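Handover notes (outgoing to incoming on-call)

Open items:
1. AMP-binding enzyme: sequence verified, structure written out, both below. Nothing else pending on this one.
2. Nothing else urgent.
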Amino acid sequence: MLYHRAGPGQERPPGSQRRGHPESQIFIFDKPSQTVPAGMQSWTILLSHGEQDWVRFDDLETVKTTEAARLFSSGTTGLPKAARLSHHNFIAQHHVTEPQTSLPFKPSILVAIPLFHASATPRTHFSPLRSGTQTYIMRRFDAAAFLANIERHRITVLVGVPSMMRVLLDQRPSPHALRSVRAASSGAAPLHRDVRARVKALLGPAVPYTQAWGMTETTCRATGFACPDEDADDADDAACSVGYAVPGLDLKLTDEAGREVAACDDDDARGELWVRGPIVFMGYVDSPAANAAWDADGFFPTGDVAYCSGRNGQWYIVDRKKELIKVRGFQVAPPELEGVLLTHPLVADVAVVGVKATPDGSELPRAYVVRRPGAEGDALTVQDVKKYVAERLSSYKRLEGGVVFVDELPKNPTMKVMKNVLRERAAKEMGAKL
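AMP-binding enzyme structure tokens:
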């Protein structure tokens, strides 16, 4: 069966004919006021087909090998892949991320990201049923409505991606807007220190605002802080620490040659992060090449470059391996440049990608910048942006690949920037100049 939310004037889900789906197997997620396209049927018709009891099982092998859901990877660096997640994955995710002791407050949460996203599915479909946490769900994210719902329902646990937090800050919320919040966390993209500081100013010094890291393939969170602990160390990077590995998860780093790198020592050595444990997914659907990625010891490569601090044992995510910019032999992480640019008072949003600069494959950083609305923002120039970075970072991190002003950045439904779209645009723009 295929479920689809129809857009204006859309008669049939894209690709459904090519995949051979008969109309009897296509159901539309319609709003109460929405008309279902001719020849199709609303999902509500399924409610008229009676009931069937749950399939019940309690042996560990069945729990580990039975799919509970198929969630798609974000597709920010390529085509999304369908990840197979077991009941065991979700149960493990619940036990390693939900507080196992009583909190000094009653947890309640507001979910405003799509329910098909890896960070939403455990919070809406699994954990609330086991923990009883009050969970409120919005159809879509709207900053004003989000703030109003926090106050109306007295939400105590604030969760959201960094881009959501920036939009909330642009609303200039009152000092009391988040007074009910007792703990806050961020994920899905780097949480830059400037954004964190501005949100914490609204939350108050006693409220922890931490960052977690995870992915679809780890059933959501893989590292973080035990609620309601505080993120005590921002280190020297633009983005904050993502905390510690969740219980039962093994992490390791490898260099470009595939050799294991010592983690959590004084050198803060960087490498690709690999994961192994009960929250790691079963594999991808119809992707034999991707499913061959596990190593002989059962570790899965995440594609993220990370390091573990020898000072505190906390993990830091540098960037996606595919997104590191190689400038004359140096590696430049876009989140560092983005973090600096977001401190500029006239920059509302930004994304940095690498563009090919020389025949030998060397790249240069190129920034796509959204200016703040108004006359002051309109006055921001390319040279202003380049100078701002040049005054704060090493010479090889300068925006020699250019600065392009855009009205908005391409983002997927979970508000992640689609860097692959920007790289394709940059290639066309650079090609036109040659």
